[in-house]
């Protein structure tokens, strides 16, 4: 069974946005694990949304680099909002998988 080290957990948390880093200070490892699992679920949802968007049925009217960038950012925001509101169960599965490793490090 793969276990997560405190270094790996710290690296995963440190790659989050500036606002998330501010929240991470003083958080327990359990809270950090849940935060990282939620971020992974949002990344997973973004991947699904991006794949769905790439399966075009027709050419878009405005097909420029600017619109592609905008749609990518829009997918990221949709993914974050969806992961916060509705759970696919990915985050919970990750927490269940890595919880014993985090508890044994305490």
Short description:
This protein is an all-alpha fold and 106 residues long. 75% of the residues lie in helices and 0% in strands. The protein has helices at residues 6-14, 18-24, 29-54, 65-85, 90-105.
How are the elements arranged and paired?
Layout: H1 6-14, H2 18-24, H3 29-54, H4 65-85, H5 90-105
Helix pairs in contact: 1-3, 3-4, 3-5
InterPro entries: Flagellar_prot_FlgJ_N
Protein name: Rod-binding protein
Region (Disordered): 1-28
Key words describing this protein structure:
mainly alpha; disordered N terminus; 5 helices; 75% helix; 106 residues
Description:
The model is unreliable at 1-22 (pLDDT under 50). The chain is an all-alpha fold. The longest helix has 26 residues, at 29-54. It has one domain (6-105). The protein contains five helices and no strands. The chain is elongated and about 55 Å long.
Helix/strand order, N-terminal first: HHHHH
Low-confidence stretches: 1-22
Q: Can you give the mean pLDDT?
A: 75
Major pleated sheet: none
Q: Radius of gyration from the CA trace?
A: 17 Å
Which shape, going by the Cα principal axes?
elongated
Q: Strand tally, please?
A: 0
- Count of discrete structural domains: 1
Q: State the helix count.
A: 5
Structural class label: mainly alpha
Strand share of the residues? under 5%
* Helical percentage: over 70%
Q: CA-to-CA gap between the ends?
A: 19 Å
Protein name: Rod-binding protein
Organism: Lacimonas salitolerans
Biased composition (Polar residues): 1-19
Pfam families: Rod-binding
């Amino acid at each position: 069974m793969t276990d997560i080290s405190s270094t790996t957990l710290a690296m995963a948390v440190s790659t989050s946005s500036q606002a998330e880093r501010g929240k991470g200070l003083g958080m327990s490892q359990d809270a950090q694990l849940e935060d990282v699992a939620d971020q992974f679920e949002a990344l997973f949802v973004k991947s699904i949304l991006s794949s769905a968007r790439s399966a075009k049925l027709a050419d878009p009217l405005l097909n420029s680099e600017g619109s592609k960038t905008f749609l990518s950012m829009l997918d990221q925001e949709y993914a974050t909002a969806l992961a916060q509101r509705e759970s696919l169960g990915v985050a919970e599965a990750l927490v269940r998988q890595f919880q014993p490793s985090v508890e044994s490090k305490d």
